[in-house]
Amino acid sequence: MSATHQLSPVARLEQKTVVDLIGKGKRVDDRGSLDYRPTTITLGVVEKANGSAQVYLGKTKVLAGVKIQPGTPFADTPDEGILTVNAEFVPLASPTFEAGPPDENSIELARVVDRGIRESKAIDLKKLCIEPGKKVFMIFVDIYVLDHDGNLIDAAAMAALGALVNAKMHAFKVEKGEPVYLEEIIPVPMQNYPVSITTVKVDSVTVLDPCLEEEQVMSCRLTVTTGKDDNICAMQKGGLGFLSPDEIKQIVSTSISKAKDLREKILSNVK
Amino acid sequence: MRELVAGCAAGKVDGKVVLDLSDVEDKQGEADLPVALMPKSNVVSLLQMDGSLTEEEFKQALDMSTDACRRIYEMQRDALRQKYHVVKDEADKEEETEVNA
User: Fold this and answer.
1) Chain A CB within 8 Å of residue B100 CB
2) Contact B42/B57 with Cβ under 8 angstroms?
3) pLDDT at A9
4) Of A120, A128, A236, A110, residue with least CA distance to B30
5) What local confidence, expressed as pLDDT, does residue A8 receive?
6) Which of B33, B53, B62 minimises the CB distance to A231?
7) Which CATH class is domain A2-270?
8) What is the tens place of the pLDDT at every residue in A211-231?
9) Given A118, A119, A253, which is nearest B55 (Cβ)?
10) Which residue from B minimizes the CA distance to A229?
11) Over the stretch A77-124, which tens digit does the pLDDT of each residue have?
12) Maximum separation of any 2 CA atoms in chain A, in Å
């Protein structure tokens, strides 16, 4: 995240250690440059939500919840349900997070996660239509960052996907433009499973899944989101630094294969 | 100032990778990839993407947009030179008249 430049400065010496290590092909936590931190994902942790998931990515901890309720569709998509993603950086997650209205970092996080779900057409929004132009289901994905140890985007995207896969709703039929709920419980109509992989550049080296110390010394980052067919559905570069076209191609190619592994892991949790 | 930055978007419309999307192409096309390049250092300073592209299509789109950025860069540079050329000509002329006077 570009949360980085707002963090209180780490001691110069510590920053130098992080940079020097990466220059030697090592990392502060002994990982290889392409290693992802251990990931655990627990589904259904919030009883009252339609769906929820909690993700640990190393020491980064993110909770996502899904709420589904009827509402009015947008004028330009009268027969489609509505997806809304919000992110909250809880003050206890990091000394730099403040209570109050969302800052640019939490807005960027929510937008990148939203774009991944939307552009991969992860949810079949047409199946969430109750009466075209009048009433559709709205899906709210709320993301809470509980512990910040770097790479919030990937952890949040994973938690959001987990919560959506976990989400249940009542089957419904339509009577006089109103939904009549049936006994049967159905999942949210999912048709794709987007996974984000973030890489940062430190000095002249690129490393996958940055921890907090690495984010504080990065020049820029690139998040690549891919769907189940290995197609790229969203990308976001952040930070003030630069990437050469060749570096970008390399990162994209690595991200695609890493996302594949991670997707299998997330989905194996479901079944 | 390091150097000039040039920008150009690539995208995918009707299954074809294309440059410089129009409004309709942007809304109805399958992908959009805005890129900003600093051509002399050959580095990308802005990159975003949404839609759906295979890895091959992405590489093609990135190559096309960086090439286009280089062409735009030349136009930017020429336009700047042209402008200061005119100023220089005028300054030269003024100097001449002053000398003659």
Assistant:
1) no
2) no
3) 59
4) A120
5) 55
6) B53
7) alpha beta
8) 999 998 999 999 999 999 999
9) A253
10) B54
11) 999 999 999 999 999 999 889 998 888 999 999 999 999 999 999 999
12) 69
Domain boundaries in chain B? 6-74
Q: What order do you get walking across the sheet with B16-19 strand by strand?
A: A205-208, A195-202, A220-226, A232-238, B43-53, B31-38, B6-13, B16-19
Q: What is the mean pLDDT of residues A198-204?
A: 94
Determine contact, residues A56/A178, Cβ cutoff 8 Å: no
Asked whether the beta carbons of residue A234 and residue B43 sit closer than 8 angstroms, the reply is: no
pTM: 0.89
Are the beta carbons of A21 and A211 closer than 8 angstroms? no
**Binary contact (B43, A244; C-beta < 8 A):** yes
Beta bridge partners of A193: none
State the first-to-last Cα distance of chain A, in angstroms, to the nearest integer. 31
Each residue's pLDDT tens digit, A168-181: 999 988 888 788 89
CB-nearest to B52 from A119, A242, A248 is A119
Question: Which secondary structure element, helix H or strand E, spans residue A236, and what is its range?
Answer: strand A232-238
CB A159 within 8 A of CB A86: no
A219 at B interface, C-beta within 8 A? no
**What is the Cα–Cα distance from A37 to B50, expressed in whole angstroms?**
27
The per-residue DSSP string of A176-232 comes to TTEEEEEEEEEE--B----EEEEEEEETTEEEES--HHHHHH-SEEEEEEE-TTS-E
Q: Is A234's Cβ below 8 Å from some Cβ in B?
A: yes
pLDDT in tens, B54-70: 999 999 999 999 999 99
